[in-house]
Write a structure and sequence with these properties.
The chain is mostly helical. It has 24 helices and no strands.
Length: 529
Amino acid sequence: MRQIAFIILCVCLATAANVYADYMPKVKLPAAELRMLDDALANSKKYDKAKLVVIDSMQKELSQVPTKNLLKRWQLNMAIGDQYRVFSTDSAYSYYQKSLVLAESTCIDSLILHSKIARLNALSAAGIFTEAVLSLDSLKHYPMSLSLRIELMKSGRQLYSYMLSYVNDHSQYYQKYYREYKQYDDSLINLLPRNSSYYRFIYAEHLIQEGKYKDAKAILEKLLGELPDYSNLYGMCAYQMADAFYNQGDEAQYARYLALSAICDIKGSVKETLSLPTLAQWLYEQGEVDRAYNYINASLRDAMTGNARMRAVAIARFVPMIDNAYRQKINSSRDELMIYFMLVTVLLLASAVLFFFLLRHIKRLRDAQRKLAATSKVQDNYIGNFLGLCSSYADKLESMSKLVSRKIAAGQTDELLKLIKSGKFTEEQNDDFYKIFDNAFLDLYPDFVDEINKLLREEEQMTVKKGAGLPTELRIYAFVRLGVEESTRISQILHYSVSTIYTYRNRMRNKAINRDTFDEDVMRIGREF
């Protein structure tokens, strides 16, 4: 039973080891950053609430600005639109549209262009590409200030980046969109001031595309040290740093910087985040299905909340795959739980059986101990009787010696000879021996008489009074039970003639139910004891 229990335990451990191996990630996870990300997700509503408090304050300020103060109202509408830009695309578009109306009322070209560029960004994020492209094409030929030209190039670059994410790499549209993207990208880097953070970011991105990962990482690391960890550009830099590490094959650092980028987006209430769904996909590939499921759903929820349709469509591609894996894991966990339950049940049953056998073994040991104690007691009594017999013989021998000495000293040899020939001394010795033997034997086999009677025919059964000695027939068979089977030997011990012993034994056999096996049946009396 112990071997069975051991085998079952080994099966349980092997199953647990296999399950653990199945869910072991292929790459060491950035545990600290993932915990920070989990905390940030848990507090995301708090960050969103803080964002809404700022927006609400601006809206209250806007409500107090006179209608005629077009410039101030334009500034506040643009500021509110900027707050909504990464938080709620539809709301951002609404405020940028209001800004455009106000700008057109002022007839100030720079305000009109600024409003249109801002509205273009909202259209791009919302995935309304047709109107966005038309707006971009209409704006790029307008004369404008350097700062507005830079913003327009950023918008064009962002628009075609979104559009590229929609098409397959080998699609007929891919090359067309990529050429447009590259044109705006090159124009942007040529226009940006060399010492600006955004220029350094774009430059690092170019270095990554050229395979110069070490140089790119040096620039990005410096930028990350300078920027606040809640700024949008910080999140973008962390994402590019992750890309550099990924291209170098360092997936642990890749995941770490994706997590940092996602944390930044959550703190900034950025709903069109790219880091979190990318991290979710990577975690799915590592077998971290639970986290992947939580992250991809949080990403999709944010994209839908912020009306970032472009991101929602991109994220939706991963959802079925991760959701299916998550459901498979739940089903697998349920199956594993059932297997564990069955194994535990079998183990408990095996333990119960083992416990039963153990109890039975303990009972046998206790019975054996009781029997051993009883045997020991009988042996003690037997030894005591033997010593008593020896002592009795010694006393009688001493008495006989004194008697002989007195008779001889008194010259009464004839009387002494007469006493010896009478057999009185021998008879007394035999009576003492019979009494001691009978007591000792009945202590050892208290049911001997009853067992003998079971072997005899009913009319021949014998009765022995309590305290009385054994009849000669039973005493003879007491010696047979003790293994003294030869009649000659029995006659010597009991001081009977051999023929007398034969006669008694033959008489007992004639009384037996089965005469032929009577002696063997007597030998089996008390065997269980």
